[in-house]
Amino acid sequence: MTNSRFSRRSFFFLGSAALTQIFALALPSHAQTVQVKKQKFNGISCYQTIVDLTDPDTFITIGLANNATFANTMQKTSGDEDFQKLVARSRAAVVANGTFFAKNAQKTVMGNMVGGGKFLKYSQWENFGTTLGLRAGNKPEMVTARVDGKPEWDQHWFSLTCGPRLLRNGEIWLKPDVEGFKDPHVLGSGARTAIGFPEDGKRLFLVNFDVNLTLQREAQVMKAMGCYEAMNLDGGASKALAANGKILVPAGRKLTNVIVVYDAKNPAPTELKQAWVRFQQGDRP
Question: How many domains does the chain fold into?
Fold first, then answer.
């Protein structure tokens, strides 16, 4: 990172007033925004969202159906919601589908979940699938619990568990049975979305594919675009994407959770920015 951009990893050294002054001096005259591009890799067309994890205006969190405080569990549920309503309420640069949820009455969300530095869902017994987590300074990591050990969820600003994992250390890694996946709709060819990041961890790629893919083909495409780590996200009728309030890929059903990305053009709510500062100071979920 060059000196022309202020590092978010230094937030915890500064008060809010000092932050305001430094941002006014240090940010480039044209602040970068999240990019959503129609791309083609290995002949496969997709929407590729590129998130600059080093940009101080980039904030990634999770939106829940009906503005819930906690994600759906077997004990308590807030149901699901139209994607259009989730997009309208978020007012974000990008809103995309997140992780799987069950077809039961509770619409239980898969895995532990952290958004804005606080737990949205947590069980110490979770060991299913693969987790993408953002640590302090937006440093990404990908952890497959049954192989790597359980993630340190309490160290995550943002954390989403899904899968199967597609790439591990730059190589295709497909072991859905090890992760606990058995649903043929997940294992077969289908409508796909994925998330991943390159080896330097400075960008995050959210990908919404235009055609049905096998997991093997999906992994090949994620590698071709430069990912070092990558995992599959919910797909099928859940596949959805909106940019700057405009829906590019409409969801085929109501959703329970979405990935929400803010940038300079679509700024994060004040409370989320304040939570980020507290998180850098050591306030953990």
Answer: 1
Secondary element (H or E) of residue 218: helix 215-224
Residue 244 backbone dihedrals phi, psi, to 5 degrees? 55, 35
| Spatial distance between the Cα atoms of 227 and 173, rounded to a whole number of angstroms | 12
Residue 248 lies in a domain: yes
- What does pLDDT average to over the chain? 90
Q: Tell me 199's DSSP state.
A: T
Q: What is the pLDDT of residues 70-82, one digit of tens each?
A: 999 999 999 999 9
- In the chain, count H helices and then E strands: 7, 17
Token output for 101: 């949820």
* CB within 8 Å of 43: residues ≥ 6 apart: none
User: How confident is the model over 254-283, as a mean pLDDT?
Assistant: 96
pTM of this prediction?
0.89
In a domain, 281, yes or no: no
